[in-house]
Amino acid sequence: MKAFLVESYSEGGLRAADVPEPTVGPRDVLVQVRGASINPLDKMVRNGEFKQLLKYRLPFILGHDVSGVVTEVGADVRGFQVGDEVYSRPRDLRIGTFAEFIAIDEDDVALKPRSLSFEEAAAVPLVALASWQLLVDLAHVEPGQKVLVHAGAGGLGSTVIQVAKYLGAYVATTVSTGDVEKARLLGADEVIDYIKQDFAEILAGYDVVLDSLGGANLEKSLTVLRSGGLAISVVGPPDSSFARQLGRPILAPVMALLSLKIRWKAKKLKVRYSFFFMKADGARLAELAALYDNGTLRPVLDRTFPFDQTLEAMAYVEQGHAKGKIVVKH
Q: What is the average pLDDT score of the chain?
């Protein structure tokens, strides 16, 4: 089958190749890929930013989101059958959605939302799971709390806005001038045009900030939190909980050292900092599918590319101008 392999940890390390179809284990479902979306995480993994923690054996197939049709099930699979239309964010060390087929543990798979096309469904798993896990499982957002979402026009930010509103939060977001109206339509209560305005001069007393930009933006985000508030970053620096999540507790002291500066600044301001890295969860995807089908949530796509243009799709995402998710389709 055709696939896109990471041959080396570098910007030019991804290439097209012909590889054998995956072997189906007893708990696996084999999915014929109909759509796969591009995430910033793909770039980070390709460049080797997590190579000390995620021990992939080069070469490996890249890709973290998928929608498609089940073509084979393992001997122990009970929840799926051939012909099911599904979507998934496969677990770490078993990724590989930039391919014609992928074998996925059934615990990571769910029936795709009926109301969504394969392209739309491929845009959903990672950002939907991440939004739920960071707002509900990590931040414990409650109705009436104030949430700031940076980059609200992007694939993750646009989904976090929707989930935060579903949870009853008051939501502010930062976007460029051309995306102000889009952010309002997604449900944001307050929209900051970061080209014309400084969010730190306008906002205060927030319970949670989601940062997907890092650096100076993350540090400034600490200042808009109430005492005890939580800043969550999806781009780092990682903290000790990340090492434990990946089953590498021996690296927890190293992770703690990497995040020492931002945690020290947070402590000075009497707020908290946490790095977030989402986890595969097919059962949660099944629940989220209902929210897409009833219209509570909707996918936000920028554009699609044919599968053979996956490298071009990656380059488009890396330019940083995508207004929503980028999907490669078969």
A: 94
In sequence order, what DSSP letters do the residues of 2-70 get, joined into one string? Answer: EEEEE-SSSTT-EEEEE-PPPP--TTEEEEEEEEEEE-HHHHHHHTTTTTTTS---SSEE--S-EEEEE
Quick check: 128 and 94 in contact, CB under 8 A? no
Read off the pLDDT of each residue in 149-178 and give the average, rounded to a whole number. 96
DSSP one-letter code for 24: -
Mean pLDDT confidence for 155-175: 97
Of 229, 238, 225, 230, nearest to 275 (Cα)? 238
**Considering the entire predicted model, what is its pTM?**
0.95
Q: What are phi and psi of 204, to 5 degrees?
A: -160, 155
Among 107, 114, 128, residue whose Cα is nearest residue 85: 114
Q: Tell me what percent of the chain is helix, strand and coil, each rounded to the nearest 5.
A: 35, 25, 40
C-alpha dihedral over 23, 110, 315, 242, to 10 degrees?
-90
Task: Provide the greatest CA pair distance for the chain.
Answer: 59
266 contact partners, CB below 8 Å, separation of at least 6: 222, 231, 272, 273
- As to burial, measured by CB atoms within 10 angstroms (0-12 exposed, 13-18 middle, 19+ buried), residue 295 is exposed
Q: Which pLDDT does position 54 carry in this prediction?
A: 86
Eight-state DSSP code of residue 250: G
- For residues 108 and 281, give the distance between their C-alpha atoms in angstroms, rounded to a whole number: 5
pLDDT tens for 239-292 read 888 877 777 777 778 778 877 899 999 999 999 999 999 999 999 999 999 999
143/134 Cα distance (integer angstroms): 15
Q: Cα dihedral sign for 134, 138, 144, 148? A: negative
Q: Where are the beta strands (DSSP E) in 85-168?
A: 85-88, 101-105, 109-111, 146-149
Q: Quick check: bond before 237 cis, omega within 30?
A: yes
